Amino acid sequence: MDRAPQAAAPAPREEWTGQVGFILSAIGSAVGLGNIWRFPGVAYENGGGAFLIPYLVALLTAGIPILFLDYAIGHRFRGAAPTAFRRLGGRLGRWMESLGWFQATIAFVIGLYYTVVIAWALSFFVFSFDLRWGDDPVAFFVGEYLQVGDPGFSFDFVPGVLIPLVIVWVLTIVVLAAGIAKGVQRTNVIVLPILIVAFIILVVRALFLDGAADGLNALFTPEWGALADPNVWIAAYSQIFFSLSIAFGIMITYASYRRRRSNLTSPGLVVAFSNSSFEILAGIGVFATLGFFAFQQGVAVDELESLTGVGLSFMTFPAIVSQMPGGPLFGCLFFGTLALAGFTSLVSVLQVVSAAIQEKFSITRRAAAFAVGGVSAVLSVLIFSTTTGLLALDVVDQWTNNIGIVASAILTSVLVIWVARKGGELRYHLNALSTFRVGSIWIVLVGVIGPVILGYMLVSRIISLITEGYEGMPPWYLVVFGWGAVAVLVVGAVVFTVLPWRRSPDDFVAWPAYPPSATEKSGAGSKEVRS
């Protein structure tokens, strides 16, 4: 009797070429749009220099511990988020897999609109050469460039957005299809040094502008009374949480491509502190520039508007560029770095989805890249390159980040530490391979402190969105694009969990063995750690 044909053995898992490649790629993921346009304004509005205290506390008690958790899960269970969580879950594998798909769906949704902001930055990079926005950058951005309409759904495409958006998607698909070492890593190795050098030049130039000192004083003068405000601490945890690329599959996926014997915690510290250093550097550059703008306007810095997000980047900064010596060069540097920072983060976001699809359906990385990239590009163009694209982006981003990602982090901590009871195993994995060892306090931070703080953030934000709405937009619009985005995350998690695997991920043995034998325990501390 003939035997049933056996599935071909899986190809060896892709790997980073070494520790440096992984670190640069992880930093490239963490350093994104939020570092440049979010941190400076958040710090300024929440105590100035005093904000650095809760910021550092949040980094040490939530950011780094959850980053280590992602590293441990991805590296030990050798897969994208759905694969890793399924293997981690044991008897609860199917339920845990759904958490992985929830994270992958979050990454998919973020990729749809994150790409559009990069397209805007590319457009404004070109506009900087002749200061095309003229004397009224706000009217230019909202009216002439985006042609913003009323809340709704439009098929009136904006060519100025559509063309660079298609270019960004083509570049992204090419990088994903090239793989981890030749695509993602090579992109970060090339782009990240250019980004850092260009941004340092931008910051140095800003420091020599008239009024720069006033801007820095506005940012760093501490308001110690702000430390008594719980909302300031929540803002600090929120900033750390969103800027480190944690809890929605990126670092799980990235860690899964590290070699079996790889130092995990020390590179994690390098990534975390590099990200925070770039945020502080961005704060210096942005507020030195805002100080110049206030000086030119004859007003105080606190009288300026649009100090964060889209308004800062595409309304306030063009106005500043128009008034400063060498404005076109400064504009090219700013929008160029914005596009580069966004692109390295975008690649990491979509790698989460591509890797998950590749493993679930046992297809090649190129097939996964073209499938994920193709579907994403079509949806991105249809939703965000039209006259209603800006409004849709604002709402989807608000709900996906403040509800989707925060809920994902809470579920990860609770399910991994308390339901699957994997805290001890993951701590052992980190310590068996790494030079910087974590103590039992790590489990407390990940399993107790993190969920409590994030739970408060989630509940308070949900209550605010339900009772107060958002930016004065119609309730039906918030239901469709806001709560609808959350529904997509949940439905996506369920659907992809139910679909059958082409090759079962359960035939897997985690390494090193846990619980360890007496010999392994005695030798764990002296193991050679190779990257």
From TrEMBL:
The keyword Membrane applies. It comes from the Bacteria. The keyword Transport applies. It is a multi-pass membrane protein. Its main location: membrane. It is found in: Membrane. This is Sodium-dependent transporter. It comes from Microbacterium koreense.
